[in-house]
Amino acid sequence: MTHKQRTSLIRREISESYANLKLRYPILKEQNAIGFAIFFLAAGLSLFMGYLWYINIVPGWILILVNAFLFGILHELEHDLIHYMYFKENKVVHNIMLFGVWILRPLTLNPWFRRTLHYHHHRFSGTLHDIEERGVTNGEKWNLKRLLFTPDLVVGNLLRIYSLFGDIKREVQNGNLKYETAHKIKLYGFLGLIPLTIISHVILYIFTADLLVNFLNANFATQILFPEFLTSILDYTNPLIYIILLPNLLRQFCLHFITSNLHYFGDVEKGNVIEQTQVLNVWWTFPFQLFCFFFGWTHAIHHFVVNETFYIRHIARKKAHEVMKANGIRFNDLGTFKRANRYNEIKS
């Protein structure tokens, strides 16, 4: 079969499994209620954990781990909201939820701008102008630089912007991308960082610098003075750092590590969904998966059937994996790490 025929078969069988699941469990049809309940519980529990930490009942490391897990759920919820899976007809509730999942995950792009980049990702997954995936290191060689900047959307993107914008310009010149689209995705990629994402990253940079100074002074007899005004910033933002930013730093590292290696890049045939993603669920990725709600297990399913919620994908993933494996979707292609995420072997 051609890749289009295989894609059609995969979509049909997965969609049928979803329909059968909802027939067996009619409550799953209550999509708005389930989505709002997940939002309310995950957001409420994360803030409650923050309160327990603040009154010294819960240690910081437990707070960070639990909230990283909860924010991973909220990321999946945001992804569903970007595809209008909850309250599509009620813009007020829809946008309240979208704002809520963003404000609790401020290291990410503004979701209203990200929506445009994400739709572009689905249309042009794996191309030179797939700005959403390239922004999280997809397509780069694995080295210390990629590892350090895997979770970083500010400095990390600043370091890759010349290469990325150069590729987009060439894609326009080669007729692979409209000028208007290129201008829009570049503009939205920038505007999506302002102001919350940049401010949140800067606070983490100050926090990291303070840790480094204290480490050097304690272990190497140095006497580096940390600027007083920066110390005062940390004093005011300390609850924000521990309740929101550090859990999100862990979550974002895990998500970007998983997503940038399950998506293929650079030599993906245009429109060939078979070549866009793999299922990445090898055992050693479990710690990463835990803090991005097992993204590697289910995201490839989403590329075939877009308009379904993340919890349905999880419940029905066994059947989806069976039909995907039978039709050529790769599972745990670890060669992607040495091929800089290319689908095929790099010719020397």
Automatic annotation (TrEMBL):
List where the protein spans the membrane. Answer: 33-54, 60-77, 187-209, 229-250
List GO BP terms, alphabetically: lipid metabolic process
Task: Look up the domain of life of the source.
Answer: Bacteria
Q: Calcium as a keyword?
A: no
Keywords attached to this Swiss-Prot or TrEMBL record, sorted alphabetically, are: Membrane, Transmembrane, Transmembrane helix
Domain Fatty acid desaturase residue range list: 59-332
Query: How is this protein named in the record?
Result: Fatty acid desaturase
